Every structure is written in C-alpha cells, then in structure tokens.
Amino acid sequence: MNERERDMEVKEDVVIVGAGIAGLATALALKRVGVRALVLEKSDGLRATGAALGLFPNAWTALEALGVAHKLTSIYAPFTKSGDGPTTVHRRALLEALAEELPIDTIRFSSKPISIETHTEEGSSITILRMEDGTIIKAKVLVGCDGVHSMVAQWLGLKAPVHSGRSAVRGLAVFPQGHGLNHEVQQFLDLGIRAGYAPLNDKELYWFVVFKSSPKDEEMIGKPELILKEVIDNFAKHCPQIFLEVVRHSDLSTVTWAPLMFRLPWALIFGQACKGNITVAGDAMHPMTPDLGQGGCAALEDAVVLGRNIGNSLRNGKILSGEVAGALERYVKERRWRAAGLISGSFLSGWVQQGGWLMKFFRDMIFYRFIFSRIVNVIRYDCGKLPSVLDSDTKVD
C-alpha cells in the first residue's frame, strides 16, 4: 500500500452497506447493545422508494425491541382492533424514526463500495472495502443490507434472485381536502391482476397493482405519467371507479414500476449467508414477493436477531473478534428457515391470486379454506429482545 492509499484508509469496527430498513435497524440494534457501526449509503440521502409499507405484529415486536415503536404508533392507526392486521406507514417515516436514534455520524451518504477483500491482520479477520471515491475502509465486521441485487450476497456466493414472472406498480395518492374513505384495506382481484389501496391518514392512501410481467417492464421504469396511463387504461380498467380515482390522485414522484424478484428458498437454506466476519440481512438475504407484506417486517426481525447474537457475545463490554464468526453463524441459523418459509408463503399467496378459473377454484375452495390460515401465522412471530446493555463506545477487538 502506497502513502496516498494509507492517507485514504479508514478503520471501522462494524460496517453496514445500505441505509434502507435493514441497514438502519441493524445499526440501531447494535447501538442498543453497545456496538458502534458505520452505515454506507450510495444515495445522497435516505431512500424512500416504495412510498409506504404495511407493518404487521411481528414488525411491531421488532420495533419495540429497537425502542422506536412509540414514534410510529402515535401517528399511524392499525386497521383492526385485534392488532393482527397491518398498519400502513410511510417508508420515509420509518427510516427517519430509525435514523434519528443513531449518532449523527453513523450514516455516510454518497458512499458506494466497488470491491470486497478479506485478509488476516494481527491474527484477526479483516474485510477491506474499496470505495468508488478511492477510500479504503477496513472493517472487523461487515453486514450487507444492500438490497435485492446485493454486492455482499454475491461475494458470499448466494445465488442471484430470480424473476417471479410478475411486476408491480405502486404509488401514493394525495387528496388535499381529504379522501373520505373508511380506514380499511381494500383489495380487488381480476384475471391476472391484483390491486388495492390502504389509507395512511385522512389525506393519503398507498395503492398497488400486481400483474403478469410484460415486455413493457423496462420501457416503463422511471416514467410515472406513462405508468399511470397504463394502470388506468389497462391493468385496473375493470377495478371499481374508486380505485381508479385513487390512482388519478397519485403523487407522480412516488409512482414506481418494478419486477418482483425473490431468492429461491432452497438457495437460502443450502447457500452461504455468512462467511467469517461477513453476513447479510433484509432483501440482501431474503428478497421475496410482497404478497404477505413481510419484506420490511422480516428485515426488522433480522436486525434484532443479529443484534441479539452479537450482544450475547459481549465479554466485559467488548466483543472479541474470534467470536464474531460464531455470532454470525448463530444469526444465520436462526433466520435461514424462517426467511425461507416467508419466501415460500409469499410466492404461493401471490401465485394463487392471479390465474384463470381453475386457479380461482383452487384458491377459493382449497387455499383460503385450508392453507392460508397457516401461512398468515407468520405475522405473530416474536423475534425476541435485545440484551440489556447500556449504550457505549464499545469497540470490536
């Protein structure tokens, strides 16, 4: 290493790639157990792609463990009194609730890794991240929370996600004078189409349309006006007029069109989700279709489980580098089958809802009667709590 490279070298204890839900929640979980982390985000600010998401009971359990649930429950109301259903929240509000709990220098924006290397330094495993701006970051622990097309997952050797054969359009509708609709989720099914909306508050609704992919996928991405026209004139033309009215009130900046990707469950079960001091969380580990609304929920679970396993490895306020690999292995062991089940349940739930008359018969007479109730039990999952460790400047030795 020459003198210029040494000047651009940065040493960190824990580095998290990606400042999405998984990345920020993982950083917060580590902070709660006394371990500091640096979060690298390639964008120049918090990303709110997707506009909104539904948080089910398992997500609220995780948010309680992270100590931020109260920030959101004071703003957003659940759809059912029993608490078994989702609560739809702005994605940005969730990201900000997590980010506000982190030290101001935790997130480094406009920071994109371009390569990952590992070596041993003074008897400890070190990960070297080479950044796009030429900076070299040495990390004692690396957690990839960098999304569906994760660079860290690729380095670990996890098989790439596959296309589900379906795509989704999502958006946020705004009614300045109030939408006047009941606070309840509405869903509409047509041949090969599933659409719906969920109020966020008195003036905003989150809406979606899921459909079989077409050659238009690539040409539509990033063109909100054309996307809305396609939804109104084609995909949702048989939906009730109220849904079309919701779509017409969309904030164009929130409208997205994207293929639905997922990792084959057996690729996760038999794949390598950690190696030494490197692992993945969130969509980087278990991308799934949105049919059970569990993508963000599972990412929050990941954060708590990872934080708990690392926290339980602390000795005298420190975590020894020799125990990092064991902590990550326990985390992956705990998450692997859970995540594979969510992937499978999500895919199956979406598959049965979009098909012809034979699929409709299977869905109504078999799936909903005997299978679906077992699948939705996933929303009652308890990811556990974090160890009671006071915040500190704990270092990884």
UniProtKB/TrEMBL annotation:
PANTHER family: FAD/NAD(P)-BINDING OXIDOREDUCTASE FAMILY PROTEIN (PTHR45934), OS04G0423100 PROTEIN (PTHR45934:SF1). Belongs to the 3-hydroxybenzoate 6-hydroxylase family. The keyword Oxidoreductase applies. Residues 94-343 form the FAD-binding domain. This is FAD-binding domain-containing protein. SUPFAM superfamilies: FAD/NAD(P)-binding domain. It comes from the Eukaryota. One of its GO terms (molecular function) is monooxygenase activity. Residues 13-64 form the FAD dependent oxidoreductase domain. Gene3D superfamilies: FAD/NAD(P)-binding domain (3.50.50.60). The keyword Oxidoreductase applies. The lineage of its organism: Eukaryota, Viridiplantae, Streptophyta, Embryophyta, Tracheophyta. Keywords: Monooxygenase, Oxidoreductase.
